[in-house]
Amino acid sequence: MNVRDAMVSDVKSCPREANLEEVARMRGENDVGAIPIVSEDNRPLGIVTDRDIAMCAMHNHRPLWEIQASEVIQSQRLCCCDENDSIQSCLEKMEQNEIRSMLVTREDGTLCGIISMGDIVAFTGANGRRRQDAISSDNTLELLKNVSSHHSSRPSASL
Length: 159
Known about the structure:
By secondary structure, this protein is α/β, with parallel strands linked by helices.
């Protein structure tokens, strides 16, 4: 099974100039936990999560409308996978980078989707699919344990 089989392809994104109030509003209106930040030609630059918004506001003592998305993503290490990558390689990247959502790109590097731990869990086990298409429950559980555990080295969203 490839990433394109489990990813969400109707992705809402924001430009780097968007302020965090706009990002937060888009996140809430679309009931998602993360908003990709993209360049003018739709190439991923970073991702802003609900946690990033809360931590940035707390650390900076500034209103959300005064903080641009570019400020939040400037210290991020961008992590993407290709839509044709296997779910297994995506799981490994998520675990190595301790992330819960990953941006998905086309061959040309433009954003085409996002895949989260929840999306992968939805495809874990047979669930009526052909057995060879199922994602291993063991691999998914191991990812969830490793990514969800507390990490003292996790960077904060302060500027």
